[in-house]
Automatic annotation (TrEMBL):
Mitochondrial intermembrane chaperone that participates in the import and insertion of some multi-pass transmembrane proteins into the mitochondrial inner membrane. Also required for the transfer of beta-barrel precursors from the TOM complex to the sorting and assembly machinery (SAM complex) of the outer membrane. Acts as a chaperone-like protein that protects the hydrophobic precursors from aggregation and guide them through the mitochondrial intermembrane space. It comes from Megalurothrips usitatus. It is a peripheral membrane protein. This is Mitochondrial import inner membrane translocase subunit. It is found in: Mitochondrion inner membrane. InterPro entries: Mito_inner_translocase_sub, Tim10-like, Tim10-like_dom_sf. It comes from the Eukaryota. Belongs to the small Tim family. Heterohexamer.
Length: 93
């Protein structure tokens, strides 16, 4: 019988599932864009380079989206704090 999962275990499992989904999407996108010669078992140098470029662009895009999301969340949180302070009449220090 397996022990019950803690909240941390659930968060780790969710993070791992998210990672796998992202990895699978990256693999599928780059494979579809870069691999075109199925007449040989080896990967051609142009396909290999295309795959590396595809992966790098995807990772940079993903990182940039994460940064922008964090920036947006910080601005939204600052706005919510300012609105709450205005409603309560307190002045920030």
């Amino acid at each position: 019988m397996n022990p019950p999962m803690s909240s941390d275990d659930g968060d780790q499992m969710r993070s791992f599932k998210d990672f796998l989904a992202s990895y699978n999407k990256l693999s599928e996108l780059c494979f579809n864009d870069c691999i075109f010669d199925f007449t040989t078992r080896s990967v051609k140098p142009t396909e290999d380079q295309c795959s590396l470029n595809c992966m790098e662009k995807y990772m940079k895009m993903n990182q940039r989206i994460s940064q922008r999301f964090q920036e947006y969340q910080m601005i939204a949180n600052e706005g919510a704090i300012a609105a709450a302070q205005k409603l309560s009449g307190s002045v920030p220090r």
